[in-house]
Amino acid sequence: MPHASGNPQSPLRVVVWSTGTVGRHAIAGVDAHPDLELVGVWTSTPAKAGQDAGELAGLGRTLGVTATTSRDELLALEPDCVVHAAMTDDRVFESIEDLTALIRDGVNVVSSGPVILVHPQGTLPDEMIEGIHAAGREGNASLHVNGIDPGFANDVLPLAVTSLSQRIDHVRVSEIADYSTYYQPVVMKDLFGFGGSLDAKPFLWEPGVLSTAWGPVVRVLAAGLGVTLDEPLVETVERRPAAQDTKTVSVDIAEGTQGSVRFTVTGTVEGVPRITLEHVTRTDATSDPDWPVPAKGDGCYRVEVTGEPSMTLELSHHGEHGDHNVSGMIVTAQRLVNAIPAVVAASPGLVSPLDLPLITGRGLVTR
Question: Is the pTM above the cut of 0.85?
């Protein structure tokens, strides 16, 4: 269906970088946005090269844009922005180099990762951060990393809630979700360790890794609230065995192997906990009833502000053609797609959520 748009200017030219779990939804999102024009698609899979973007996104129609494995071909299209949705969890520093090169070449980028770039101050060395800013100034282009988590659910949303506060004692932002339908085998098996022995120590649970991966969430909230955190951040992890054999779309989980995990990353101020990021991740929605559960459905994002007044806000979502894990990919993609005009207009360099104006679904109301 057509959409209402208030922008009389020419659409921004957009390339979507990858066609996977987030990329396919980014293609659909760019195609649906009246202020954006899809001009190119990158794929890492040679067999997908030459295929139409609409087919790769599962739209059931062609878009007249074919995928390519060539970076040079895409840059020759002179895009205003790249929506980078490729996997970065297993190649963090290589992907930072990729994104930095794109903005140095004059292309704005919105990306779902690496999540460390949501707010890298305090996590990455200052010289590395300045290197990204310098690349942006050289190419007169901006880089913004976001999504839903890390992203909107634990940066813009909780900060908006705190605008109602008279006194803030503690802010807790949580993802509470059943991951049984989340298709990402590398994340599920190698990083989280689901289906593996509880004696094993996947990389994610090594000391300091959680503070690197989700610490930026705590730090961006601290920056938004104007507080200086103690160092280091405080991590907790509790892993539990599956009570029964469980099949998920990413990994089969035998009884007694890791079936659920709960972790936190907390920022303290003079020893007092002030900001906490929490994840409660199950692969069986009925397990661990003593842990927090969503008020509705199989997954949610929860914001809890303790103070005067104390407030709780819960965000749940569900896809039209799938469950909360499908819609989780959609909201990640759309947070990036809808931010494109603001990022293109932003000052060159690395752009934080705190640097952008209000992002809305402008132009997406069906008529």
Answer: yes
